Each structure stands twice: as C-alpha cells, then as structure tokens.
Amino acid sequence: MPAAHVPHAQLASHQPQQDAVRQGPKKGKGGLIGCLVVLAALSGLLFNVLREIIEAVVDLVR
Fold first, then answer.
1. Nearest-angstrom CA–CA distance, 30 and 21
2. pTM for this structure?
C-alpha cells in the first residue's frame, strides 16, 4: 500500500510549484508598476531640483 501513495505525494509536491509559476507574473506586474510609480516620483523631484539649480545659476550670472 505505501507504493500506491507515492504518486499522490509527487503530484502534491508539483502543484505548489505550478501555482507559484502562475502567480509569478502577477507579482512581477505589480512590482513593475510600483517601480514605474517610484521612478515617476523621483523624476519629478529631480526635475524640480535641477530647475532650482538652474535658476540659482542664472541669478548668479545676472
């Protein structure tokens, strides 16, 4: 009888791996969207900092 249970144990061990593969792209898309949001926020901050620096340099030249 123990030999009859071996295939079931193998199937059970393969199912979580298949579920992890199916959930992988969802996590990847969420991470990608999160990274894009962070990059957009940082680029906005960087733009403001560069603008302030350029304005300060222009004021010094005048």
1. 15
2. 0.44
